[in-house]
Amino acid sequence: MSEDAVRTAFPELDVIEDDDLRAGVVSAWATAIAENNIGDLTEVPWLPPTQRELGLDDERLVDHVRDVTAGAVALAEMLLERREVDLSLDTVIAGALVHDVSKLAEFDGMNETKIYDLLGHPYYGVHVVAAADLPVELAHIVLSHTSRTTVEPATIEAEVVKRADEVAAAAVRSQAIDDLRTA
After folding, report:
1. Segment 69-88, tens digit of pLDDT
2. pLDDT of 15-58, one tens digit each?
3. Where are the domains of the chain?
4. C-alpha distance from residue 157 to each of 66, 75, 133 (Å)
5. Which CATH code fits 2-182?
6. Helix 89-98, helix 61-82: angle, nearest 10
7. Are 102 and 124 a contacting pair, CB within 8 Å?
8. Cα(107)–Cα(20) distance, rounded to whole angstroms?
9. pTM value?
10. Could you give the CA distance from residue 124 to residue 100 in angstroms, rounded to a whole number?
């Protein structure tokens, strides 16, 4: 059942050309759903501490992941069209789709868990990506997309996902504040 929920939540999976990569992304999410007893993936909040601070209770993780994926694809396609870059669109899409899979373990509803408090974002995601036997490039995207680690993007795919995530998060914050420098 959880694999069907993942496919329904993330129609962008269909764009991934590599069947094994697509199946691995689905498996990563299904594993995180099962390990964290998630009943409805579409009801998982985006980032509870920020949501509480800004009064944005209705923001959801699936919407954020889809926004990041759309932004990352747009950036990647622009780079492929305008620059001679060696970039894997499949890796960008898969990386954008799994970049926040760790949030299923980091939060229980609107409350932080010990994984969030003690490990922080995104270490559980690396575990899930490895358990799904996804390429190390995806674990790198998960680790390097956030300032909660010291890992910086080493690939263009990781940089694209990180920038798309930053813009998508800024768009959410802009709903509650006029000056993003104050967030």
Report:
1. 999 999 999 999 999 899 99
2. 999 999 999 999 999 999 999 999 999 999 999 999 999 999 99
3. 2-182
4. 16, 10, 19
5. 1.10.3210
6. 160
7. yes
8. 29
9. 0.96
10. 10
